[in-house]
Automatic annotation (TrEMBL):
The gene is CLCN5. It catalyses: 2 chloride(in) + H(+)(out) = 2 chloride(out) + H(+)(in). GO terms for biological process: renal system process. Interacts with NEDD4 and NEDD4L. This is Chloride channel protein. Keywords: Antiport, ATP-binding, CBS domain, Cell membrane, Chloride, Endosome, Golgi apparatus, Ion transport, Membrane, Nucleotide-binding, Repeat, Transmembrane, Transmembrane helix, Transport, Ubl conjugation. SMART domains: CBS. It comes from the Eukaryota. The chain crosses the membrane at residues 115-135, 199-224, 245-267, 273-289, 301-325, 375-394, 414-431, 486-507, 513-532. Proton-coupled chloride transporter. Functions as antiport system and exchanges chloride ions against protons. Important for normal acidification of the endosome lumen. May play an important role in renal tubular function. The CLC channel family contains both chloride channels and proton-coupled anion transporters that exchange chloride or another anion for protons. The absence of conserved gating glutamate residues is typical for family members that function as channels. Pfam families: CBS, Voltage_CLC. Its main location: membrane. Residues 645-709, 735-801 form the CBS domain.
């Protein structure tokens, strides 16, 4: 049984090597007492386990009547027991229901207990929406700060600064209130020296923001780096990572997310917003006892918080619920679906009330395309899906290879230097090209845009023939010099984004992947859209255009191609399908373009799956060795439980505890000499008939507490797990009854059970371990880690890559 305990003879946090964990390539110390939930604090005086003791009162303790603080809780980097947690919650609910008939106060308590889940969702939605609005506004202002400052008020971004200006529509970005750094320092904005100064200031601000972000992450909250979604998937599957969703992580992630996005690095804020929302959910859980004391109930809340995070990230509440269901959640009952929907609704409403974009909409990418798509356009849409799948597979392989190199070489020891170098390269390459200089969100918004009469963008510099204009619809026109300039600039931007994102994702700053992936797809889609538009304009008599695209008609919408390309690339990287399509049409308001989006998303998934089965988040889970049992993969090998269980043929026998013949000293010796997180209890060593299973942590706490509070408990005291004490001589010391901490119904399988069934049991019930018997006798044990190692071996991977319990 290879479940390692992470506290050898103490469950007090220490700074030994055993408290060090490698997350995404850096060694981090997790002895952060502030972020430990109250469960651990309630353990009071159980500071160390050294086998010593002190006598207390002489009352015989029955732990069934007096539950001990800390019993039933879990150590860091352990997996929760879903079955036990759900059983405890059912018992708690039954007790409250039965008491509600006794008095009015008990009835009020019962009603408040039922309502507490909805109140918690309301609080999560309000907090997540408020933080998202704050992040959006701050990031917009600090992004513009790299290029200049507003004289009317330094806290205004470029757009808000020019709202009250009297400039014409075409010069709306050149209002006198907004000054570039060269205008502010030199007094003029023209000429080579002014350009060099603006260039220099852009790079300096970018480096300042990114260095501040990485230093804050490194100094205060190492868990605030990355997107957080791989770790949240692992936590929702039942793994415990103390501090990952704590208050310090929330504060630092919120601040550094603004800094990282503002620095101009090729990353987005959408993935980290899911982490931020889950931090809000975890912290607010501590206000409610039923969520604070039950890890399974807390994970239901975190599933709903993840939905709220996507809701505010994209302004897509329904897409957020589907994202939580499809991508991150492990256990998602119908009740959680309703609560996720409510949390996403409140979060979206809060964000809409704050109105961070100043356009009275939830999203930055709202589009209004005037022309419907034609059936023949499905061909280029599917081509974009193929491109998205190829790029997704290429990105995942390249990024994982780079992250593995970071973990296994000296590169991982210099996170600040890495961020400095990548930011410097990004800023130096980005400034000369206006499409990489602007924020990625603004770039996507411009690429999605359908050119109108008043658009002054270079992407809309067509040769106008206003005689053929009908209402708002502009016909397909010949591309002007501005469009051709924009095309090659976009082609350069595409190359830069494709490669720089590989090195950016996984650095020690908060970094999301949704927006960079969408940017790559949107650029590719816009390029293809303009090419199709010009093809239709010059060759409208070709057979493929003749039936539906006559001369002077508005046939092709390049912005739609950008939208489909963005969905294809995001699908290729994350392997989302249903939630992706819903997020995209909520994000853009393009409800009638669901079929193109579905075609592109499905094609990109098929193509990417043909090259590699894992999405980016699953790949990072495997890279970091998290104990995550993927529910989507089929187990098709013909192995049996006896092939996987421990002990193996040449291993020492299984460590067991007998039900009524071992002393306190015997049990303490087993605890000190082994590092397993639990022990089977048998009738006797000779019979090996199984009685139950007891957790190491519960044993330590119960023995320590008995030594302090129960008179006569010494090293020679017999421990028994039966209902009645065994017959002993009158001179024997007091006995210790520990039946209440014994799991009398551990999951068992026979040695001939196919592993296909065992894996299914672990996935669907969320087990930590399963005992193996033969004719009722205990043979061995299979832990979740054993299952993961077995799957890795069968896939020709390194089984030791599974780092944790």
């Amino acid at each position: 049984m290879d479940q390692k305990g992470y506290r050898r003879e103490s469950f007090q946090s220490s700074t030994s090597d055993e408290d060090m964990l490698e997350i995404a390539g850096a060694s981090l110390d997790f002895s952060m007492a502030e972020d430990d939930p109250p469960l651990d604090r309630e353990m009071g005086g159980f500071s160390s386990y050294n086998g010593g003791g002190m006598n207390g009162t002489s009352t015989m303790m029955d732990f069934l009547e007096e539950p001990l603080p800390g019993v039933g809780t879990y150590e860091d980097f352990n997996t929760i027991d879903w079955v036990r947690e759900k059983s405890r919650d059912r018992d708690r609910h039954r007790e409250i229901t039965s008491r509600s008939k006794e008095s009015t106060w008990a009835l009020i308590h019962s009603v408040s207990d039922a309502f507490s889940g909805w109140l918690l969702m309301l609080l999560i939605g309000l907090l997540a929406g408020s933080l998202a609005g704050l992040i959006d506004i701050s990031a917009h202002w600090m992004t513009d700060l790299k290029e200049g400052v507003c004289l009317a008020g330094f806290w205004f971004n470029h757009e808000h600064c020019c709202w009250k200006s009297n400039t014409t529509f075409t010069d709306r970005d050149k209002c006198p209130e907004w000054k570039s750094w060269s205008q502010l320092i030199l007094g003029h904005g023209e000429g080579a020296f002014a350009y060099i100064l603006n260039y220099f200031m852009y790079v300096v601000w970018a480096l300042l923001f990114s260095l501040l972000a990485v230093l804050l992450v490194k100094g205060f909250a190492p868990y605030a780096c990355g997107s957080g979604i791989p770790e949240i998937k692992t936590i929702l599957s039942g793994f415990i990572i103390r501090g990952y969703l704590g208050k310090w992580t929330l504060i630092i992630k919120t601040i550094t997310l603004v800094l990282a996005v503002s620095s101009g690095l090729s990353l987005g804020k959408e993935g980290p917003l899911v982490h931020v929302a889950c931090c809000c959910g975890n912290i607010l859980c501590h206000l409610f006892t039923k969520y604070r004391k039950n890890e399974a109930k807390r994970r239901e809340v975190l599933s709903a918080a993840a939905a709220a995070g996507v809701s505010v990230a994209f302004g897509a509440p329904i897409g957020g619920v589907l994202f939580s269901l499809e991508e991150v959640s492990y256990y998602f009952p119908l009740k959680t679906l309703w609560r996720s929907f409510f949390a996403a609704l409140v979060a979206a409403f809060t964000l809409r009330s704050i109105n961070p974009f100043g356009n009275s909409r939830l999203v930055l990418f709202y589009v209004e395309f005037h022309m419907p798509w034609h059936l023949l356009e499905l061909v280029p849409f599917i081509l974009l899906g193929i491109f998205g799948g190829l790029w997704g597979a290429f990105f995942i392989r390249s990024n994982i290879a780079w992250c593995r190199r970071r973990k296994t070489t000296k590169l991982g020891k210099y996170p600040v230097l890495e961020v400095f170098v990548v930011t410097a390269i990004t800023a130096v390459l980005a400034f000369p090209n206006e499409y990489t200089r602007m924020s990625t969100s603004e770039l996507i918004s411009e690429l999605f845009n359908d050119c109108g009469i008043l658009d002054s963008s270079k992407l809309c510099e067509y040769v106008n023939d206003f005689n053929s204009t009908k209402g708002d619809d502009l016909p397909d026109r010949a591309a002007g010099p501005g469009v051709y300039t924009a095309m090659w600039q976009l082609a350069l931007a595409l190359i830069m984004k494709v490669f720089i994102t590989i090195f950016t994702f996984g650095m020690k700053v908060p970094s999301g992947l949704f927006i960079p992936s969408m940017a790559v797809g949107a650029i590719a889609g816009r390029l293809l859209g303009v090419a199709m538009e010009q093809l239709a304009y010059y060759h409208h008599d070709w057979a493929i255009f003749s039936g539906w695209c006559s001369q002077g008609a508005d046939c092709i919408t390049p912005g739609l191609y950008a939208m489909v390309g963005a969905a294809a690339c995001l699908g290729g990287v994350t392997r989302m399908t249903v939630s992706l399509v819903v997020i995209m049409f909520e994000l853009t308001g393009g409800l009638e373009y669901i079929v193109p989006l579905m075609a592109a998303a499905m094609t990109s998934k098929w193509v990417a799956d043909a090259i590699g089965r894992e999405g980016i988040y699953d790949a990072h889970i495997r890279l970091n060795g998290y104990p995550f049992l993927e529910a989507k993969e089929e187990f098709s090998h013909k192995t049996l439980a006896m092939d996987v269980m421990r002990p193996r043929r040449n291993d020492p026998p299984l460590t067991v505890i007998t039900q009524d013949s071992m002393t306190v000293e015997d049990v303490e010796t087993i605890i000190n000499e082994t590092t397993y997180s639990g022990y089977p209890v048998v009738v006797s060593r000779e019979s090996q008939r199984l009685v139950g299973f007891v957790l190491r942590r519960d044993l330590i706490i119960s023995i320590e507490n008995a030594r302090k509070k129960q008179d006569g408990i010494v090293s020679t005291s017999v421990i028994y797990f039966t209902d009645h004490s065994p017959p002993l001589p009158p001179s024997s010391p007091s006995m210790l009854k520990l039946r209440s901490i014994l799991d009398l119904s551990p999951f068992t399988v026979t040695d001939q059970t196919p592993m296909e069934i065992v894996v299914d049991i672990f996935r669907k019930l969320g087990l930590r371990q399963c005992l193996v018997t033969h004719n009722g006798k205990l043979l061995g044990i299979i832990t979740k880690k054993d299952v993961l190692k077995h799957i890795a071996q069968l896939a020709n991977q390194d089984p030791d890559s599974i780092l944790f319990n």
